[in-house]
Amino acid sequence: MQTSWVTKGLVCGIILLFIGTNIPTSQSGNSTIQPNVLSWKEKNPGYIPISNETHYYALIIGVEKFDNGTLPGEFLDDSAMAIYEKLLNSSNWKKENIKLLLNENATKADIQDAIVHWLGERVTKNDVVLYYFCGHSWRMTLKYRLQGLTGHTVTYPYDKSTNRITDIELDSWFDQIQSEHVVMILDTCYSGKMTALIQNGRTILAAGGKYLLCPVDEDQSLKSGIFTFFLLQGFNGVADINDDGWVTAEEVFHYARWPTFHFSLWLKFPFNKDLPMIIGPQIPYMYDRIPGQERLINLSQGNFTVNK
User: Fold this and answer.
1) Nearest C-alpha neighbor of 179 from the set 112, 253, 121
2) Shortest CA distance to 190 belongs to which of 214, 207, 206, 213?
3) Is the overall model pTM greater than 0.90, yes or no?
4) Which fold has domain 54-298?
5) What is the spatial distance between Cα 131 and Cα 14, in angstroms, rounded to a whole number?
6) Nearest Cα residue to 197 out of 76, 289, 291, 120
7) All structural domains of the chain with their residue ranges
8) 10-residue averages of pLDDT along the chain (308 residues)
9) How many Å apart are CA 44 and CA 289, to the nearest integer?
10) What is the pLDDT of residues 180-203, one digit of tens each?
């Protein structure tokens, strides 16, 4: 069933009119500071900037299969592997500082242990931490609340038959590591609603919206999650807007956001072949609580192709 371009155009206009740019006011110091208003750095004099002693650590997770079967979706573990390989191609990342958890290796206990112990025992305030998750999440429904869960969302680990991870739980695990440079990339439905994760020292790139357009999708032609595909494209160098040889979290988000929306609107909306429902286009959301630009990919070494 095909939807006319006129219909899609009207939908696009209504969405943009309602949500605007859907980017919350950044506290990263990039927005204009009004007279007599303290900047984020002035309000946080104890903040420690990145130094030459900074180390980079990453926890990359992809969950497509579960102990009690599967959910609609493909290329979720492939997306995680692609991010893992991209980091290895950047000189600031070392293989021994990257942990990859896929499918049966990504139980709730595995994920908690990787954050609290593997990261917690290594990371200092000055270190950069990247947490990437590609999988399935859902809003906190009455069913889950009656089971005693609290928070805004639930994320499904491999042992989905018995466990869930709420955004409040995930936040409590990350509270136990020292880094003040934590970047979270969440390519999962309702990731924009994971507001328990928001705090100073973290930048969250969420594939799903905060209020509307919360579901996310992948695509056969991309062989990847849609958001992840355009992030990877940006990490190749095209997102390096200021040509300083680094791709930052903020740069790659702003590069990937609108291509993700455009692709999901024109090629995926309004029908999803895997779900018996109408699904809206996808528009990512960012929460930025790290001052300045958080460097992620060093383009000075490695096999990067830049097309600007």
Assistant:
1) 121
2) 214
3) no
4) Rossmann fold (3.40.50)
5) 33
6) 289
7) 54-298
8) 50 48 40 37 46 88 91 88 96 96 97 98 96 90 81 91 94 96 95 94 92 74 92 96 94 95 75 54 91 92 55
9) 11
10) 999 999 999 899 999 999 999 999
Tokens for 152?
């805004």
